[in-house]
Amino acid sequence: MLDSDDDNISVISSSNVRSDQISHFVTEEVEFNKGSLLDEAVDALFEKRGSTREKALEVINAAFNFNVQNQFVENKFVTLLHQCLNCIKKGSSKEISLASRAIGLLALTVGPGDKAHEILKESMAPLSQAFKSGSESSKIISLLNCLAIVTFVGGNDPEEIEKSMQIMRQLVPSKPGSNAITVKPTAAVITAAVSAWSFLLTTMDGWRLSPKLWQESVTYLSSLLDKDDRCVRIAAGEALSLIFEMGSLEKFSGEGKGSCDGSVPEGNKSKDGFSHIQGLKEKLLNQARDLSVEAGGKGSSKKDLNNQRNLFKDVLEFLEYGYSPETSCKIGGDTLSTSTWSQLIQLNFFKRFLGGGFAKHMQDNEFLQDVFGFTPKRHNLVAYEPISNIEKRMYRSPNSVVNKARTQQLNKQRMLSEGRNTGHFAICVGYEGF
Hints:
Blueprint: H1 37-44, H2 50-66, H3 70-90, H4 93-110, H5 114-132, H6 137-154, H7 158-171, H8 187-201, H9 211-224, H10 230-245, H11 248-253, H12 268-292, H13 302-321, E1 327-331, E2 334-338, H14 341-354, H15 358-364, H16 366-372, H17 389-396, H18 401-417
Antiparallel strand pairs: 1-2
């Protein structure tokens, strides 16, 4: 079926999802039958065996990633949410990672409103506890992404957003504290935490945050520019640019509207604050100059090096002249453009989270279209982004659950089709496109 010329085929599922394996069948476009496969996958989340729940979550994540499952959410929202939360509470690290991703995808699907706010409220305690239950990088990164998405979509007031941002800050403390997680975070976790924190900062009014918080944030982020890991540097550079774009220089120096309690700094306090931030800005300019022309060393990734150089050229131009980077990408026959650091950070975060499903969501997900002011040409075919090597292995490996299930199903259908002169073997289960 992966080599078939039929572009309308989607999914075949096994008759018994409560067995040791969850059988499912996918084409290259990874489209799913909303009626049977997802129902069976959600039912499998009630199983006691962790491996069964993990396989069900893989099905759910793939379905929600590559199609916007609006109708399914209408019918199974509460069940799916609560079962995913149960997986986070009692599952393995892998299961927690899969379940947290599923919750993030669920929030993106429902969009802002009562359901998204319910996801945020119900998820906060399980997510916070899961951060403390182990230090595996992949799990922590998945939890960070989930917290960022559900807060971005479901946060109704600044206090809720600030609470999530504080959790993220505690994962990468600049100095030891009683509320900080004591395990030293990996570079990947630092990158994810800074990116998630910046992503939520794009939704905030900078004047709400205290000068002390700005000072701590800028000082810490500036220190990350000296780290060895280029991805850490890039995330910190984007975050710092966003802070300055928000006009937080005045807030940071304690001028203008005063501190968070309404008081206005007096005399030398204001001058000292302004001098301090000017010093940090000058330091950042020097760091950006160096990083924009850094030479590659032995074992250096050329892609990461180029990304770093290009990013800090933009940072340098922004800090010196006030010009934010302008970007554009093709979605089907349309162009999605950004012209601010805030938009660029949001775009990069959603692209990383959705991967190969980003183009499909931009075509069909009204919430994402509202975020970026993007209006697709409804009658154009979606231009799917290539799926990653990991996703290819998931769907095409001879040893994968998907491939074994496909082989079993095709053998069944061939047996049923004996004696029929169809001329071409194809399966269609009534998938309704969007």
